[in-house]
Amino acid sequence: MLRIHFSAGDLERTQIAERVDPLWEMVFSRLRLTEGDSGVLLEPWLRDVRRNGDRQVIRSGVRLLAVLSPLGPYFPDFLTPPEGADGLTPALEAIRGTPRARLREEFRLLAGVSPTPSWTRPLAEGCDGALAELTEALARYHAAVIEPYSALIDEAVETDRLHRNGTGSVEGLLHGMWPLMNWRPPVLEVQYAHNRELHLNGRGLRLVPSYFCRRTPVAFADPGLPPTLVYPVHHDWTWHRQLASGRRELGALSALLGSTRSAVLAAVGAGATTTELAERLGASPSAVSRHTTVLREAGLLTTERQGLSVLHQRTVLGSALLGRN
C-alpha cells in the first residue's frame, strides 16, 4: 500500500497532467509488449506493432527498457523525468543532463534488485556518449511503438482527464479514483506492490493518466522529486466519447445500415468484445452478436477469438464509412 499524506495547501496544488508523458508510456508499453496477456483493449495496438513496426528497433528498445525499468520494487527515476510533462524532446534532454552523482546512486539501487549488465556501467558513470546513445535509442523506440498511435493515446488520456476533472473539486476527483485509490482524508491510499509513505508537505500531487499503464499506479521512488502518481486511464470512457460523437455524424450511414448497426460499428472503436459492445450500447449480447454478424458478412467488421471472448474490429471499409481512415 502507498499512503500519500496531504497537508495544508496540497489539495489546491493537486492536478491532472494535461498531456501524455512519453517516457512513462514507453516504460509501460514495454511491459505490454512482453507480458502474456495485454488485454483485449490493447490487442489491436499490439497486433499492429508486431506486424508493421520496425522489429529491430522494437527488440532493441524492449531489451534496453527491460534492464533499466524491470518489474519489481524499484527502477531509476532518471528514466522518467518530470520534464516529460512538456513532451519527448525536453524529457530526453533532461535524461542527457542527469547529474553523475544521481546516476551512480540510482544504478546502485537498481543493482540491488535486478541484474545490471556490463553495458550499463558507462551510463552509471554518466558518460556523455552513453547518455546520448540511450536517448537516441529511446527516440527510435518511441517512433516505432508510440508515435504512430499518438492520436488514439492522446484521445484516451484527454478523455480520462476531462471526465475526472468534471467532478468539480479536487476532493471529488480523488474520491472518483476508486477502486485504483481510496481517498480517506487526509490520506490517499493506493494499491501498491510494497508499503510506502509519501508526505506531500505542501507540494501537491501531479496525477498522470497513462494509456499503457495497467492495474497499479506508479510513483517516483525518490520522495524528494515532485510528487507524481501515474495511473491507468479508464478506456471505456474513450469508447463512450467516440460513440457520442459518432451518433452526431452517422445520419447518412444510418440510412444505409440502420441506426443500431451504425451505432455498433461506431462503438467498436479500436476493438471491442461482444460483451463490451453490449455494455457501451445498453443492449443484450445476443442482439449485439446478431448485428456484428451482419456487419462482418458485409465486410465492415472482422471477428477473432481471444480466449473465451471474441474481438471485433472495423475493416478499412468500415472505418471509411465512418470517415475515420
Question: Explain this structure to me?
Answer:
With 325 residues, the chain is of the alpha/beta class. It has two domains: 2-232, no CATH class; 235-322, Winged helix-like DNA-binding domain superfamily/Winged helix DNA-binding domain (Arc Repressor Mutant, subunit A, Orthogonal Bundle), CATH 1.10.10. It is built from 15 helices and eleven strands. It has helices at 22-34, 43-52, 55-68, 88-96, 100-111, 121-124, 128-145, 150-165, 170-175, 235-249, 251-257, 259-267, 274-281, 285-297, 316-322, and strands at 2-5, 15-16, 181-184, 187-190, 196-199, 206-210, 218-219, 228-232, 272-273, 301-306, 309-314. It has a four-stranded mixed β-sheet with strand order 3-4-1-5. A four-stranded mixed β-sheet has the order 2-6-8-7. It has a three-stranded antiparallel β-sheet with strand order 9-11-10. A hairpin with an 8-residue loop joins β7 (218-219) and β8 (228-232). α1 crosses α3, α3 packs across α7 (128-145) and α11 (251-257) crosses α12. The longest helix is centred in the middle third of the chain and has 18 residues, at 128-145. The radius of gyration is 22 Å and the shape is globular. The N and C termini lie far apart (44 Å). The relative contact order is 0.15. Residues 246-250 have low confidence and may be disordered.
Question: What is the N-to-C succession of helices and strands?
Answer: EEHHHHHHHHHEEEEEEHHHEHHEEH
Number of strands: 11
Whole-number count of domains: 2
What is the mean pLDDT? 88
Distance between the termini: 44 Å
Low-pLDDT segments: 246-250
Supply Rg: 22 Å
Largest sheet, spatial ordering of strands? 3-4-1-5
Structural class: alpha/beta
H/I helix tally: 15
Strand content: 5-15%
Largest sheet: 4 strands, mixed
Which range best describes the helical content: under 10%, 10-25%, 25-40%, 40-55%, 55-70% or over 70%? 40-55%
Shape: globular
Domain HTH arsR-type: 251-322
Keywords: DNA-binding, Transcription, Transcription regulation
Pfam family, one: HTH_20
Protein name: Helix-turn-helix protein
